[in-house]
Design a protein that fits this description.
Helix 1 runs antiparallel to helix 2. This protein has one domain. It is mostly helical and about 100 residues long. It has 5 helices and no strands.
């Protein structure tokens, strides 16, 4: 996004300098150059979306075997009743004496 932004800003400044675009009487070329920078940044980001998505998809495929992904229950802290029963924790906790 940075090359698009800088490129559009340089082109806009050149157009204002050569008289193709009128400069603002109070602020000069700053508003037009700033707007060109913002639009260039947005276009740069939009042009990179496909590349970024493909990188995340390839990373997702690499991590799927390492315990990541929809099939892996990484948020379970063994606090729900189903997990307690599945791992036999309810009997262990009930047989321990309480401190009170």
């Amino acid at each position: 996004a940075l090359p698009f932004s800088l490129g559009s800003m340089l082109v806009t400044q050149g157009l204002v300098h050569h008289g193709y675009l009128a400069a603002n009487p109070r602020f000069g070329s700053l508003p037009k150059v700033a707007l060109a920078g913002i639009l260039g940044y947005g276009l740069g980001k939009a042009s990179y979306i496909g590349v970024c998505q493909s990188k995340f998809h390839s990373l997702d495929d690499q991590l799927r075997g390492a315990g990541f992904g929809p099939g892996h229950n990484r948020h379970c802290l063994l606090t729900c009743e189903e997990c307690k029963i599945k791992h036999g924790l309810s009997e262990e906790r009930s047989s321990q004496p309480s401190a009170s």
